[in-house]
Design a protein that fits this description.
The chain is built from four helices and seven strands. By secondary structure, the protein is α/β, with parallel strands linked by helices. The protein has one domain: Rossmann fold, CATH 3.40.50.10840. The strands form two sheets. A four-stranded parallel β-sheet has the order 5-6-1-7, sandwiched between helices. It has a three-stranded antiparallel β-sheet with strand order 2-3-4, with no helix packed on it. A hairpin with a 2-residue loop joins strand 2 and strand 3. Helix 2 runs parallel beside helix 3. It starts with 10 loop residues before the first strand and ends in a 19-residue tail after the last helix.
Length: 158
């Protein structure tokens, strides 16, 4: 994997897909049984072999030594991400997410923190795209804005 990362570029990784029954906790991905009842106890419905290996450890073993892997959970939140980014090092942030709201919170935090590279599930990609679309809509509100020019798909119908 040497050379696969841009020097100084941080990456946010969220492999959880809570809508599909996959979540991450403590850097480990787990899957719920498909028969998980609404409002049931999550812990009692984990399969016998429900989890992956520790994702941050797998990345540390595969990446060059100059890449720092940081495991983040929701208690760290946007403040924890911002604090880690202040170091200026190239970092891979592995984000725990136990529900769809967590996935969306990481997407917002990453975009707001200025992260440019996101990796993970389609649920995470959709959340990042949604945050970017909201930011574009908020930034461009004037009918005189150059981005309102005909043919610009970002402003279709405006």
């Amino acid at each position: 994997m040497d050379g696969c990362l841009v020097p100084g570029q941080s990456v946010m990784l969220a492999v959880a897909a809570p809508a599909s029954g996959r979540f991450t906790g403590g850097g480990v991905q787990m899957r719920l049984q498909s028969s998980f009842p609404e409002g049931g106890d999550v812990g009692s419905y984990i399969r016998d072999r429900p989890s992956s290996d520790h994702i941050p450890s797998l990345l540390r073993a595969a990446l060059p030594e100059n890449a720092t892997v940081v495991a983040l959970n929701m208690s760290a939140g946007e403040a924890g991400l911002a604090a880690a980014l202040r170091s200026g090092r190239q970092q891979i942030f592995v984000c725990d997410a136990e529900c769809s709201e967590d996935v969306h919170a990481w997407a917002r935090s990453g975009v707001h923190a200025g992260i440019k590279v996101f990796a993970g599930t389609s649920e995470f990609a959709s959340a990042v795209a949604g945050v970017l679309a909201e930011a574009t809509t908020r930034i461009c509100t004037s009918p005189r804005c150059h981005r309102h020019a005909r043919g610009n798909p970002a402003h279709a119908g405006q």
